[in-house]
Amino acid sequence: MVEWDFEMGQERAKAYCAGAEHCNSEVKAMLERHGLADSHIVRILENLSNDNFVNESRYAMAFANDKVRFQHWGRRKIAQSLKMKRIDSSVIGQALEGIDMQTYMEVLEQVVKNCYRQAKAPTQYARNMKALRSVVSRGFEPELAYRFIPDSKSEGLCDIYDETI
After folding, report:
1. What distance in Å separates the CA atoms of residue 94 and residue 80, rounded to the nearest whole number?
2. 141-to-17, 74, 99, 155 alpha-carbon distances in Å
3. Which of 11, 7, 3, 10 lies closest to 36 in space, CA to CA?
C-alpha cells in the first residue's frame, strides 16, 4: 500500500466526504490506514471542516434518520452508536430530537408487531416479555414499546420495565 502525502490525503479525504456523509472519526481512521502523520490528519480535518465537507451535526442528523428509517433502530441504539463514533453529546441530543416522531412511532409499531409475531412462548405473558426484550434490544424505549404489545398493561409489564429504566 502506498503511503499518502498531505496533498494526496486531502484530495482523497474530500472525495471520500463528497461521496457520503462521514464524521471526523471515520475520516481520521481512513487517513490513518494510509499512513498519514497525525499533524497532517489534524490539518486535513480542519480544512474539511472549514470547507464544510465534514459537519458533525449534519452527519448525526443523517445517521439518526437513516437508522430509524432503514435499519429500524431505536433512539437508544442510535445514541450509543454515535457515542462510539466520538460525536459530542449535545450534537447527539439535537440529532435525536430531529427524528420525526410520527415516523419513529410507525417504525416502532412495525418492529413490535414483527417481534410479537416471531415470539414463541407457552403463556401470553412470556410471549409479551420476549417480544418486549427483542424490541428493547433494537434500542427502543420500553415505555413506548409496551404501548403496542397486546394486553401488556393488564399483565404488569409497565411496572417491570419502569423500574429498570
Report:
1. 14
2. 33, 7, 14, 18
3. 3
**How is residue 24 written as a grid cell?**
471526523
Q: Report the candidate in 83, 76, 50 with the shortest Cα–Cα distance to residue 137.
A: 76
What are the distances in angstroms from CA 43 to CA 3, 21, 28, 50? 17, 19, 11, 11
Q: What SS3 class is residue 88?
A: coil
- C-alpha span between 159 and 164 (Å, rounded): 9
Question: What pTM value is reported for the model?
Answer: 0.87
Dist. CA 114–CA 118, nearest whole Å: 6
Q: Which of 73, 72, 84, 31 is nearest to 54 (CA)?
A: 31
| Distance in angstroms (rounded) separating the CA atoms of residues 125 and 130 | 9
pLDDT tens-digit series, residues 74-92: 999 999 999 999 999 999 9
